[in-house]
Amino acid sequence: MKRVFSALICHETHGFNKLPTTLEKFQDMDYVEGDTIKECAVGDNGWTGVYKVAREQNWELVHPISTSTMPSGPSTRETFEHLWGVAEESLRKDGPFDGIIWQMHGGMMCEHLDDPEGEIIKRTRAIVGNDIPIAIALDIHGNISPDMVKLSDIICGFHTTPHVDVADTCFRAARLLQRTMSGEIKPVTYSVHPPVLVGIDHGRTTREDCPIPTMLRRFKKLQADDPDLLDISFFSGFPFCDTSATRASAMLVVNGTDPRFDGVIQEFGDEIWNTRDQVTIDFVTMDESIDQALAPSDKKGPFLIGDYTDTPHGGSYGDVISMLKKLIERDVKNAAFGPVWDSVAVSKALKEGPGANIDIALGGHCDPTHGGGPLQTKALVKAVSEKGIFEHKGPFSHGLPGELGPSAWIEVQGVDVIIIDRPDAIYDREQFRIFGINPEDKDVLVIKAYNHFRADFEPIGRGLLYTDSGGIFSFDFKRFDYKKVRRPIWPLDQFEREEGVTDYARTSKS
Ligand SMILES: [Zn+2]
């Protein structure tokens, strides 16, 4: 019987978000300490994948911590050291182990560490030594560091965005770990990191001709003739982490070492470089999005505008109101906008109640250099909610309870605005309906979201465009003051790529 250590510490960090992420944010969102993997292994999550193999192979599984939270700013030192401390204690007292499996993101940053995932693997190695196999399961939006590659034996990333193969990714990693522990294979990781800040269509796999599905099909063909090709993953990179590891990459897990593997990984590295400007979403200016929304159309339903650069699901603040200012300036009728994070405005609305006219300085508080400052305005309170409780009725998280928290519907110079007292996104029509707004009846909906809202809103929309309102999830990367990203890198610099550069490659232990 194999004894396996498994743990999950996950955070996608927006390095340009100035608000630190604290332990409470993890504890409020998703924090399970102790060996509860059996109960948590339900649905598409990493526990399910690990637990499936554990049960199949009769592992003695030790799983001391599982925690993640919404994308946000860098974690504090205290937060990281607490989370690591729980894992460390178990690594020291519950061993010896035959194998280790870590679930992480790959795009985490802390105030004292640029590469927390690499640090976790380094510290794990220091405890268990060099002979115990370590497997890592990662998000497709990770930045892969030298320590992660050199100190682990198996790295598997998601193959899909939207991420619908979380359990399967951990299953792949756990299966390879089992084969390693049983002596069947001797895995080695080969990686390539082309100078692309974010690539492979930002990890999207919504169309068969996206780079990732195309490369996966090619890998499957190669694998059919070469069983030593064990697994492949592609990472888009997370461009809002300003670190030396930030960039796209491909990761090959093979059995043993051989020069032919260098050729395979290099081929995929070239593909990441060659498809660097291939994206399947159109981005337009704020005025262009409104022009389209106001254009005559035979179709019914609201025109949808994704205010994606300020989506908290990408680590933004959720308080940029430049699109609201634009809706007012362009005199757009029957429009709704939100949600805007403004705790002061929410508490005023809750205190004064429906029917009150309140004076507010709405939004733009967190970082006026990205998206502008507040809008000083009068607002009519239309409806309030102490908890903002709703039930997901759309396909995303269908049937699960949701909570926007203290929130309100206010009317600002003719535009309906949802305000909330913590950063969150809108992705279900119920989040409008709880206030009495019927989203189908609006002409224009401007929503702070990027991907998930499409599932419930696209069926009622007569069109969808994404616009850059100046928030920190912008793909106009020249707006950010990068200091640590290795240069040159596309699209920040103009340069010719040096062929045959395969950095961080190899990691066999003997
Ligand atoms: Zn992701």
Structure description:
The protein is an alpha/beta fold and 510 residues long. It has 2 domains: 3-274, no CATH class; 286-467, no CATH class. The chain has helices spanning 23-29, 37-40, 46-56, 77-93, 116-128, 146-151, 166-181, 211-225, 259-274, 286-294, 322-329, 343-352, 430-433, 454-457; strands at residues 3-10, 30-33, 60-62, 65-68, 99-103, 134-138, 154-157, 187-192, 229-235, 249-255, 283-284, 303-306, 335-341, 357-362, 375-385, 389-391, 401-403, 407-412, 415-420, 444-447, 463-467. The strands form 4 sheets. The protein has a 9-stranded mixed sheet with strand order 11-21-12-20-13-19-18-15-14. Strands 1, 2, 3, 4, 5, 6 and 7 form a 7-stranded mixed sheet that branches. The two termini are 25 Å apart. The model has no long low-confidence stretch (mean pLDDT 93). It binds zinc ion. Residues 139-141, 163 line the site of zinc ion. Residues 139-141, 163 line the site of zinc ion (ZN).
Characteristic terms for this protein:
single chain, 510 residues, alpha/beta, 2 domains, 9-stranded mixed beta sheet, 7-stranded mixed beta sheet, 14 helices, binds zinc ion
The gyration radius over C-alpha positions equals: 24 Å
The percent range for strand residues is 15-25%
Domain count, please report it.
2
Beta-strand segment tally: 21
Overall mean pLDDT score?
93
Helix content: 25-40%
Shape: globular
Major sheet:
9 strands, mixed
Terminal CA distance = 25 Å
Hetero groups in this structure are: zinc ion
Class per helix and strand makeup: alpha/beta
Low-confidence stretches: none
Which strand order does the major sheet show? 11-21-12-20-13-19-18-15-14
Count of DSSP H/I helices: 14
